[in-house]
Amino acid sequence: MQIDQKNIFPIMGEWLNQENSIQLDFSNQNADLLKLDLQSTPIFNDYVFGFLQKKNKKFGHGGYLENRMIYQRSTHFQQGESRCMHLGVDVWCEALHSLYAPLDSKVHSFADNNNFGDYGPTIILQHELEGEEFYTLYGHLSLVSLKNIAIGDFIQKGKEFSELGPFPENGDWPPHLHFQLISDMKNLKGDFPGVCAPSELETFKQLCPDPNNFLLSDS
Fold it and tell me: Quick check: 101 and 147 in contact, CB under 8 A?
């Protein structure tokens, strides 16, 4: 799914670049994670934001198709074959940060997915561009974000429509946005897998193309 970035409004209100952001590694290759009690959200939060403060960055980002160990913190990802392959991009920054519609949008669905480690408050927007219909998912929002919206609402490109949530209401994670592109919702509403098992990766790569173009500056 190739969309010219000049047609996209930056979701975070500004493009992520080398000056304001840094990539974070949540794979098994990050030895620091082995030392943390990841089931303790305050400890996990101190690690994430301590790292950003040390690097003097406003945002941390990354994770598309990353094989992540951090999902071991929640039984939500351990039912059947363990799910560890991340299908979106995360942007880690302070809670209550505003989010903006990247394109003209319609509210497809929303829900509070309130299992430990899940999305928490979630909004899914529907878009149509050059005859192609697709969806964007926003997870780990505030509960306030789910108030005063309705399925079918039109949201103009560039309009503020939600904000990042604090823990524990955001699914009990350090504050961040889970952003995901979806080509086919498969009749799901308010939710869509953001992590899959390795055996499912090829299927989900087709359903969930790389979303970095909506967040990271290409210039």
Answer: no
Q: In whole angstroms, give the CA distance from residue 112 to residue 203.
A: 26
% of the chain residues with pLDDT over 70: 94
Q: Is 191 exposed, middle or buried (0-12, 13-18, 19+ CB in 10 A)?
A: middle
Domain map (residue ranges) of the chain: 5-214
Angle at 84 between CA 91 and CA 211, to 5 degrees: 40
Q: Which residue has the tokens 């529907």?
A: 126
Which pair of tokens denotes residue 31?
């030895």
Q: Looking up tokens 């309130």, which residue turns up?
A: 114
With contact defined as beta carbons under 8 Å apart, do 63 and 26 qualify?
A: yes
In whole numbers, what is the pLDDT of the chain averaged over residues? 93
What confidence category does residue 4 fall into, taking pLDDT thresholds of 50, 70 and 90? confident
Beta strand pairing status for 59-62 and 21-23?
A: parallel
Does 39 score more than 70 pLDDT?
A: yes
Residue with tokens 């299927």: 203
**CA separation for the pair 23, 26 (Å, rounded):** 10
Q: How far apart are CA 120 and CA 139, in angstroms?
A: 7
State the architecture of 5-214 in CATH terms: Distorted Sandwich (2.70)
pTM: 0.94
* The two structure tokens encoding residue 205: 């790569």
Sign of CA dihedral 104, 108, 118, 62: negative
Instruction: Find, among 102, 101, 33, 89, the residue nearest to 60 by Cα.
Output: 89
pLDDT at 55: 98
Read off the tokens for 102. Answer: 């990247």
